Amino acid sequence: MTIKETNKKKGRYYTLARVILFFACTLVVHILSSILTENAPERIVEQLLMLSATILTFFLVLLFTRWEKLKPNDVGIVPGKKSASRFSIGFGAGLLMAITQALIVLSFGHFQLKLVPEITMAEIGLPLLLYVLVGSREELVFRSYSLRSLSYSWTPFLALVIMTTIFSLEHLVSGNTWQNAIIGAGTGGILFGLAALKTKGLALPLGLHIAWNFGQWSLGFKGRPGIWEAIVEKGYESQVENIGLAAFIFVMGLAIAGVCIVYKKEKLL
């Protein structure tokens, strides 16, 4: 192995170490934000927490991007001419995914959606704001500096595998079940990561991410009523859950295939 090859190999591991350090710093930022907002009004405490975490995470991205000797544009955080359209496409696709999953579950019976009576705009707007902030924070953490720097130093495929694994682990540590963390966050991580790599930006994955979470909440698929309440016939909970999981995998698979087809001419690097 030549000196040049040895230095290149060392550089890869330095990048990986910086990405791990970056992720650790984002966790510290999240904890710090939680402490800073713990006395906020209960109705908006989650939104303030995520707002604080998102802003601080953005500055971390800038810091580590400079450390990696990259530019903000290299990690996809600078909006471009196509950003608005890509976000809109992603948002529409994300809502369609959530609706498709619900329709599949409904078609098998023993499950219904009941419109929540007298829901207010504030009761819809606050969850939407929360999912905007959650999506923004997670895209900054997992699909900007970390994913792109690994894709430059290693390969886009390995970068996607590494960041999807970390994405799943964060969801597991946050209290999600193994099933939700590995299958749910795992397939979501592949979709959002692939969208970020193909478009060289965050607009498309951010639109997908926000709309998917908000769509699931709206349809009562987040474990609590949204705009609709999901009602499962007694005795069929396990069956409906399995159908919901299968529908989830189906729509995620379609979305991943869609990104690959629509952006087939775009390279991952």
From TrEMBL:
The species this protein was found in: Flagellimonas flava
Keyword Transmembrane carried by entry: yes
Alphabetized UniProt keyword annotations: Membrane, Transmembrane, Transmembrane helix
PANTHER family linked: MEMBRANE-ASSOCIATED PROTEASE-RELATED, PROTEASE
Lineage, uppermost ranks: Bacteria, Pseudomonadati, Bacteroidota, Flavobacteriia, Flavobacteriales
Transmembrane segments: 16-36, 48-67, 87-108, 115-134, 154-173, 180-197, 243-263
A molecular function GO annotation: endopeptidase activity
Protein's GO biological process: CAAX-box protein maturation
InterPro entries found in the cross-reference section: Rce1/LyrA-like_dom
Keyword check for Glycoprotein: no
Protein's name in the database: CAAX prenyl protease 2/Lysostaphin resistance protein A-like domain-containing protein
Ranges for domain CAAX prenyl protease 2/Lysostaphin resistance protein A-like: 126-214
Signal peptide range in chain numbering: none
Pfam families per the UniProt record, alphabetical: Rce1-like
